[in-house]
Amino acid sequence: MGFLKKIFGTRAAVQPLPSGTITVDRKGHIVTSTVSSAYPANLLQAIGRDVLELLAESRAAEMPLAEVSLHFGSLRITARELRGGAIIFLFPQTALLPTPARPPV
Amino acid sequence: MCLATKSSAAFSRLSLRKNAVSGKQSMGMETRHKILLLDDDSDWLALCSDLLAELPSHPEILTANAAKRALTILEAERVRLLICDLKMPRIDGLQMLSIVRRRFPELRTVVLSGLEDEVYRDRAYALGVDLFWLKGEMQRNFKLFADCLESLLGREGDAGFRGIQSKSLMDIMQMECLSRSSTVLRITRGPLVAKVWIQDGELIDAEAEGARGEAAFRRLLGWKTGTFENLPAEPNRERTINKPVNALLLESAQTLDETANPVGPESIESASHRKNIRLLSQLTREGADFVIAVPPEGKGAPEAIGIQSLENSAHWTRRAEAIARRLGERLEAGPLSHVAGQNLERQVLIIPHGDRAFLVGWPVEADGNLPEKSRKLVASWDS
Q1: Which of A35, B349, B357, B361 could be joined to B321 by an S-S link, Cβ 3.0–4.6 Å?
Q2: How far is A24 from chain B (nearest CA, A)?
Q3: Cβ <8 Å between B116 and A98
Q4: Which domains, ranges and CATH numbers included, belong to chain B?
Q5: CB atoms B316 and A57 under 8 Å
Q6: Cβ-Cβ contacts under 8 Å for B334 (sequence gap 6 or more)
Q7: pLDDT for the residue A4
Q8: Would you say residue A69 lies in a domain?
Q9: What residues make up the domain containing A86?
Q10: B164-190: per-residue pLDDT in tens?
Q11: Which residue of B has its CA nearest to A64?
């Protein structure tokens, strides 16, 4: 028994969605996190890096944003600029639940 | 779905609820239609069956709390109308509807759902349902809902085919008017909703995209796709359209032809000017600051309304959409719905639409469902 696990490993094929809050510094390094430690750190870093890139691009376009929110089918990412870094909220969305129009204040 | 109601599953097992009102027993059984209610919420089933039992035709109400049980009833009973929820465990409403359509093609179907997403409405109509109502809307406007059900129940003797595809709105209007119908056509195209009032085959009023009367009718005929449903007639509706429908259809067809195939620089300029005026008025009505339509890199220049310098914003829109899509794919977070941003002066939304992305700017004080409002503007842009 369990030979399939030996061959394929125990990692789930479907990645769970992150839930919680992270803060990243201006270089994209994660400073604090309330996301489950089981969630891959490299993906959390990718979130931080991409959010900072998005905010930097908005500054370059002379349209600096204090807050940005990415709405996906099953996840909402809301980020607020924090002196070059950012605080990022990750909210998984239930498939059949409508996404709130505005991020939490 | 309500957990509390699930615990009382025994209550909500297949039950044949006879009409409790004694006065209704006097009605001939052969004239009583049967309505099957399918919902996994037993409290909702009880409430609905009580409400529907009060319909003027006093139908017999059958209930089921699971699709399998509903199918058993449909096999055993001659049911006229199925009222079905969408969100259910195991077999959901959409699956149920596709089974029913195949196995019981003569059965009328109504979706009564709590899901406000237009996607579900579109999918349900694509499966051939006769009516789609939201539960909240049904409670608020039960009279209209009851009228619609009565209308569906009352068509036993009517011959005819169901499901109209590959027919333009012009064809549908002509059919309704030639058959001297009295009805209200409710037409939905994504987030846009329009209504056309027809009385004894004459077009009397229309509402679309904030416009009314002939202007609304012309706007509406520009819609190329959508879904429509027949609502009960409103004979007391104030008349705003006095032209014969054929004259209006001809004029609209001519305008659409000119817009689609402009001949000569004057015609092109005129079509473009008309589009700009229409978009500006739509922008003002919704309260937005600007809209920029951004095609993919190398596939044309961005177009904008309400803003002069658009290069930087268009560039940011492309970049932001690309970053968001990349991140969404990496996280397996599903399709990108939109990107929203704000600062002290403004709110902006990026709405992906086909191969383009739209950047919609709103004043910081704008509230309400901005993604929905932005989608309306985007839908108007293309119509």
Answers
A1: B357
A2: 16
A3: yes
A4: 3-153 (3.40.50.2300), 169-258 (no CATH), 278-382 (3.30.450.30)
A5: yes
A6: A72, A73, A74, A75, B328
A7: 66
A8: yes
A9: 17-92
A10: 555 677 777 877 887 788 888 888 776
A11: B343
Of A17, A43, A70, the CB nearest to B324: A70
Query: Per the structure, how many domains does chain A have?
Result: 1
CB proximity list for B369: less than 8 A, separation 6 or greater: A101
* ipTM of the modeled complex: 0.82
Are A72 and B331 in contact (CB < 8 Å)?
yes
Closest CA to B17 of B94, B88, B77, B87: B77
Residue B116 has pLDDT above 90, yes or no: no
* Token pair 């998005």: residue: A54
Assigned domain for A70 exists:
yes
Let me know if residue A11 belongs to a domain: no
Question: Could you tell me if residue A79 is inside a domain?
Answer: yes
Residues of chain B neighbouring A72 (CB-CB closer than 8 A) = 328, 331, 333-337
Give the model confidence (pLDDT) of B239-274 as tens digits.
898 888 878 887 777 776 666 665 555 555 666 666
The Cα-based distances of B365 to A80, B161, B377 in angstroms read 18, 50, 18
Average pLDDT, chain B: 78
